Amino acid sequence: MLESDFQERNRFFLNMGPQHPSTHGVLLIVLEMSGEYVLDPQPVLGFVHRMHEKMAESRPCVGFMPNTARMDYVCALPYNHGYVSLIERKAGIEVPKRAEYIRVITSELNRVASHLLWLGAYLLDLGAFTPILYGFDDREHILDILEDITGSRLTYCYYRFGGVSRDIDDKFVASTRAFIKRLRERFVIYEKLVTKNIIFIKRTENIGVVSPDMALRYGMTGPNLRGSGIAYDVRKNEPYSVYPEFDFEIPVGSQGDCLDRYMVRIREMEQSLRIIEQALDRLPEGPVRAKVPKNIKLSPGDCNFAVEAARGELSYYLVGDGTSTPYRLKVRVPSYSNLSCLPELGRGILLPDLVSILGSFDLVIPEMDR
Amino acid sequence: MPPTTKIFKEDILFHEFNATETDYNQRGYHLEVALEVNQVRKFAQKAYDHGFYLVFVTGFHVLPEETEEGTTSGLNGVYQFARYDRLYRIKGHVSVPEDMSLPSICDIYQGANWHERETRDLYGVNFDGHPNLKPLLLSDEDQDFHPLLKEEENLKSLKEVSWSAEVPDSAEADEKDASE
User: Fold this and answer.
1) Does B127 touch chain A (CB under 8 A)?
2) Residue A125 C-beta-side C-alpha neighbours within 13 Å
3) Residues 6 or more apart from A342 whose CB is under 8 A from it?
4) In this predicted structure, which of A26-40, A326-340, B148-162 has the lowest mean pLDDT?
5) Can you name the residues that pair with A13 across neighbouring β-strands?
6) At A335, which CATH number?
7) How far is residue A27's CA from residue A47's CA, in Å, rounded to a whole number?
8) Quick check: B27 and A304 CB within 8 A?
9) Do A321 and B156 meet the contact criterion of CB atoms below 8 Å apart?
10) In this structure, is residue B27 part of a structural domain?
């Protein structure tokens, strides 16, 4: 009785965010606390809500391209990829092989950049300052490579219906190969610096365990799901673009804790490098853009296209009405479903563990709020 | 590579619903299920029992129609499920009745909680049995503002936006503005 009395008297509410460094953006989590324990964490979304779906309904489908990069700005190219593929499926546009290869190479580079940013930011959350300097150093190389061909460093709008906006050159191939070599050497440093660090392991092992059933009930996807041991990756399960032509593995964890999610992402970067290497080796010659009508008509009916973004399954669901403007465009973003398990996962844990869980989820807030 | 066609013929999971097999390469999902309001929860339970995860819940707004039972609200609920272990994507859709409410499925799929709150925000559909149907993406002051509801003049009938609609032949116009 005494103990529960004490708990009752020590019950209070704490606003974590919207200006909290470990929420990585404007996310508010209202925590019901008892001492240092979290009783009920309730995320409050919508601080950066821009109603992208309404914007899609109010302009011809080509005008929505720049919006796709402004949802998940950390890993924007898969968002480009999903959207152009959706319209290509709807309008029946064939894409030249070389363009698909370039899409895969740049998407995978972007995925690696996203994971590197996550790596630095996550360890910063856990109190390690050094890794973010290493991570950003490597990421900078990718941004430079992508800037050269796409023209932007973050919010890319590089893909076009039927191809990509410009061809890659020898400089791109050479610098990408050099980067792969460099990053493989850096993985050794990361492993020594982070993966075997005892403090890091204590902060992540057996923390935030997501069971396979829980993942299914919340519709989790991406590395967060694979950490729980389910080998679901849209690139393998629902092959799109030229991914079936490459040999790569889907890393999975066993426990579903923060450490597993960490390991999955680290190993996923190695697999992405493998894909890029194979794609560069086999890069076909030819055009990078098909002939498509300027004004693409979206035939009546609905259509879905899913791709694997850095954080999980990204689904675009389109309803056309015969004009060039979508009648309805739904964007299913991975972080949204991934975070929705927090009220269940975060019940009864310590506040520092909640910070560890949030970091391991690799959230991008503008993506959830759309 | 997992099989992409003829899944439904071997699989009689959803035979009790009004389900039609669709062309995956054209639409990106395998099965379309037309639901009645009272079937929604049964459908979700069946999907859960057979290992489907919830992809999303959303809505879309069309012109209200006159039916034998009365006028529909014009709103449609859309549910999409998929599987982790193989390529199988299903879409369920249901016409929202005039009282603007659908049964909530968030005790079956807890992940539906936020999706249903979002649908209420954007379309004003109420979900009966939802534990916490407060605004999620929009602010509290915008309780009665539903941005994705279309204005009267932009509404099209369900027939006009479904696959069976007839497309006016515009191939000639397209060829004219074909670009490099």
Assistant:
1) no
2) 27
3) A29, A41, A43, A357, A358
4) B148-162
5) A32
6) 1.10.645.10
7) 7
8) yes
9) yes
10) yes
Q: Work out the number of other CB atoms within 10 angstroms of the CB of residue A144.
A: 12
Number of separate domains in chain B = 1
CA distance A100 to A295: 22
> Does B122 lie at the interface with A, CB-CB under 8 angstroms?
yes
Q: What percent of chain A has pLDDT over 70?
A: 98
Is the backbone peptide bond immediately before A18 cis, with ω within 30 degrees of 0? yes
The span from the first CA to the last CA of chain B, in angstroms, equals: 34
Question: What's the pLDDT score for residue B13?
Answer: 66
Report the distance separating Cα A147 and Cα A131, nearest Å. 24
Signed CA dihedral, A210, B51, A305, A254: sign only: positive
User: Which residue from B50, B100, B106 is spatially nearest to B79, judged by alpha carbons?
Assistant: B106
- Kindly give the parts of chain B with pLDDT less than 50: 1-5, 9-10, 171-180
Residue B1 included in any domain: no
Confirm whether B40 is domain-assigned.
yes
Chain-centroid distance, C-alpha B70: 21
Smallest CA–CA distance, residue A40 to chain B, in Å, is 14
Q: Which two tokens stand for residue B136?
A: 């999620």
Residue A247 domain boundaries: 2-369
| Beta-strand relationship, B126-128 and B101-103 | parallel
Q: Does B43 touch chain A (CB under 8 A)?
A: no
**In the predicted model, what is the mean pLDDT of residues A298-302?**
86
- pLDDT tens figures, A46-73: 888 998 999 998 888 888 989 998 888 8
| pLDDT above 70 coverage of chain B, percent | 83
Residue B154 placed within a domain: yes
Closest approach of A183 to chain B, Cα-based (Å): 30
Please judge whether A291 and B180 are an interchain contact, meaning their C-beta atoms are less than 8 angstroms apart: yes
Asked if B29's CB is within 8 angstroms of A304's CB, the reply is: yes
φ and ψ of A234, to 5 deg: -60, -30
At B82, which CATH number? 3.30.460.80
**Distance separating the N- and C-terminal Cα atoms of chain A:** 47
Going by C-alpha positions, the residue among A302, A301, A308 that lies closest to residue A238 is: A308
Measured between alpha carbons, how far is residue B127 from residues B3, B41, B76 in Å?
36, 12, 13
Residues 6+ positions from A196 with CB-CB distance below 8 Å: none
- Name the residue among A45, A217, A322 with its Cβ closest to that of B110: A217
Domain count, chain A: 1
- Which tokens sit at A28? 């508010």
- β-pair partners for A160: A163
B51: containing domain = 7-176
Residues in chain B: 180
Q: What's the confidence (pLDDT) of residue B2?
A: 46
So what's the pLDDT on residue B4? 45
Three-state DSSP class for residue B63: coil
pTM over 0.90: no
Supply A54's token pair.
Answer: 């309404």
* pLDDT classification of A178: cutoffs 50, 70, 90: very high
Q: Are A253 and A264 in contact (CB under 8 A)?
A: yes
